[in-house]
Amino acid sequence: MLSATLTLCSTSSPPARNFTLLKPSxxxxxxxxxxxxxxxxxxxAFSIDEQEKRFDPSLFAARAPGLGTxxxxxxxxxxxxxxGGGSVSELDDNVRRLLQxxxxxxxxxxxxxxxxxxxxxxxxxxxxxxxxxxxxxxLSLNFFFILPLLNSVGIHLIEAPxxxxxxxxxxxxxxxxxxxxxxxxYTDRRRDRYKGSLDVLWGFQMFLTNTFxxxxxxxxxxxxxxxxxxxxxSQLGSVMKNGAPVVGLIGGLACLISILWALFGRGDGNYxxxxxxxxxxxxYLGSERLAYAFIxxxxxxxxxxxWLIGDNLQNIQKDKVAVVNYLRFVPVVGLIxxxxxxxxxxxx
Length: 348
Prior knowledge:
By secondary structure, the protein is mainly α. It has 15 helices and five strands. Helix content is 51%, strand content 5%.
């Protein structure tokens, strides 16, 4: 130990005070040099009285509150948010996973309840009656009222099946709405999350509607795969994108004719007035599994239409974004607006 005496003096001559300087008896030795230019601080080893200690700054940082990262699932669609509607893609991971779980649950309920269980109105798929099969074939032949309209102008290459106009109207209304989803699916900014064929998906959707659309809505919420290279747009996809206005007009016209046909079609066939047709519709929904399933489809389309359009408003012509953003909540009309206002150069 080193010692020294320091004397302080003043005019009042106080007594002298001694201060002792102490030399540390413990040695502090750095065993590894510390670089100030490392991105991540490394552990520093040192010894105190020959007992080795290790200090790791990363342990402190890991335990410090508020320093953790919170991953966000951010949509790249700035136009969608600037258009006034919040994009469903702007969700954190927890909400995204919750939505995916709900969609997969909805898919399970849709298939089990509408196809397999005998409790819903009508026959399940494993006990379907010949009457239901004949009705389904007749409705398919009257697709978009092509055969009835041809017969009405004297063209009788094939005779159109005669069914109740309410059942024909409901069938073609849902199919017309489904038809207009094609341009929306082929221009969806998140379609690359779905690794399958969009041609097959939309083709099956035309016949089985939400049986295939619900899984797509869940899969498109997956995180982007950085190693995945998007496949080239198919010929059908190119036709649907480039001809989106035509698709919108055809689908919209089919939906309009379906409503008018259901209310006034086959007026000479003794199908009754509006109250009688309404009563038939209620009875039809409560006795036929196909009609009952169409109500589910309409309900799900009311949810999926604004969701998908809201995520893809950046595909719309800039001066039409506000209008489409408002109309997307109107069933059928919003999808017509999307098809008519789609920007042909949106991906360029």
